[in-house]
């Protein structure tokens, strides 16, 4: 436990020295949320969930995407490329401890992003969650774990930082643009919506939208199941094939 806490503190100091996590993980979602709030909140009056209401569930996933899929995978790959993981192999620190410590640091950044976006939506634009906040927070954590499992998978298997940049960028930008995080799912034609549903984050956003609008959870079983499969497969492969070097 002492070795883990020491490793966690070191990881936290190293991660927060980088400006990337501040820009892409925290500031970008808050800025985008402010833009959506300004442009969409004016037509949010009326019955049912408006585009403004639905945009909240989309924007809060951007911080998850930046920290989990991008930040986590690149850090693990960088440690492998520089031989840090290989040196840690002869220490009491296990691969699981490395992943958990780095994941917790990135998770803190994602939660800060979530809080920032939520405060902007509520206090600047009068957003009101139609569903249950406790259930929404549980769903948010579930989506976060699923996206972090993908980042862990990429970071655990790639050989070097070049490969990590390629795969993490492909996963990050494809889900950022085509999962409904930045381009609203509802405005896309049906054949493109079918293509968007290929990405795991799209199902996470569907789940969060359903919960935020008070839709019965039974209608989200498909999304819950797909995210669960994503977590099981990603973590299973990570544990089995984690690369030290």
List the helices and strands and how they pair.
Blueprint: H1 2-15, H2 20-40, H3 51-81, H4 84-88, H5 95-125, H6 133-157, H7 161-178, H8 190-196, H9 200-212, H10 221-241
Helix pairs in contact: 1-5, 2-3, 2-5, 3-5, 3-6, 3-7, 3-9, 6-9, 6-10, 9-10
Subcellular location: Membrane
Transmembrane segments: 21-40, 55-77, 98-123, 135-158, 170-188, 221-242
InterPro entries: ABC-2_transporter (IPR052902), ABC2_TM (IPR013525), ABC2_TM_bact-type (IPR047817), ABC_2_transport (IPR000412)
Give descriptors for this structure.
membrane; transmembrane helix; mainly alpha; single chain; ABC transporter permease
Gyration radius (Cα, Å) is 18 Å
What is the strand content?
Answer: under 5%
Order of helices and strands: HHHHHHHHHH
What's the helical proportion of residues?
over 70%
The helix tally amounts to: 10
Runs in which pLDDT lies below 50 for 5 or more consecutive residues are none
**How much is the average pLDDT?**
86
The structural class is: mainly alpha
State the distance separating the first and last CA atoms: 25 Å
Write down how many β-strands occur, each being a DSSP E stretch of 2 or more residues: 0
Tell me about the largest β-sheet.
none
| Global morphology | globular
Describe the 3D structure.
- The protein has 10 helices and no strands.
- The chain has helices at 2-15, 20-40, 51-81, 84-88, 95-125, 133-157, 161-178, 190-196, 200-212, 221-241.
- Helix 3 (51-81) runs antiparallel to helix 7 (161-178) and helix 6 (133-157) runs parallel beside helix 10 (221-241).
- By secondary structure, the protein is mainly α.
- The longest helix is centred in the N-terminal third of the chain and has 31 residues, at 51-81.
- 42% of the residues are buried.
């Amino acid at each position: 436990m002492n070795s883990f806490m020491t490793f966690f503190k070191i990881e936290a100091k190293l991660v927060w020295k980088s400006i990337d996590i501040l820009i892409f993980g925290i500031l970008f979602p808050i800025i985008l949320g402010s833009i959506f709030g300004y442009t969409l909140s004016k037509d949010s009056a009326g019955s049912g969930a408006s585009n403004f209401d639905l945009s909240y569930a989309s924007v809060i996933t951007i911080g998850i995407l930046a920290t989990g899929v991008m930040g986590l995978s690149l850090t693990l790959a960088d440690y492998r490329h520089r031989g840090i993981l290989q040196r840690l192999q002869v220490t009491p620190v296990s691969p699981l401890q490395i992943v958990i410590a780095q994941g917790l640091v990135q998770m803190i950044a994602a939660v800060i992003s979530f809080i920032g976006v939520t405060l902007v939506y509520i206090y600047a634009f009068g957003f009101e969650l139609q569903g249950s906040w406790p259930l929404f927070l549980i769903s948010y954590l579930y989506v976060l774990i699923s996206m972090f499992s993908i980042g862990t998978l990429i970071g655990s298997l790639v050989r070097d930082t070049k490969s990590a940049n390629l795969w993490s960028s492909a996963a990050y930008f494809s889900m950022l643009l085509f999962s409904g995080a930045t381009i609203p799912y509802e405005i896309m034609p049906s054949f493109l919506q079918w293509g968007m549903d290929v990405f795991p984050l799209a199902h996470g956003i569907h789940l969060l939208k359903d919960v935020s609008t008070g839709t019965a959870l039974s209608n989200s079983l498909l999304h819950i199941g797909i995210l669960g499969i994503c977590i099981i497969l990603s973590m299973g492969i990570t544990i089995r094939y984690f690369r030290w070097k």
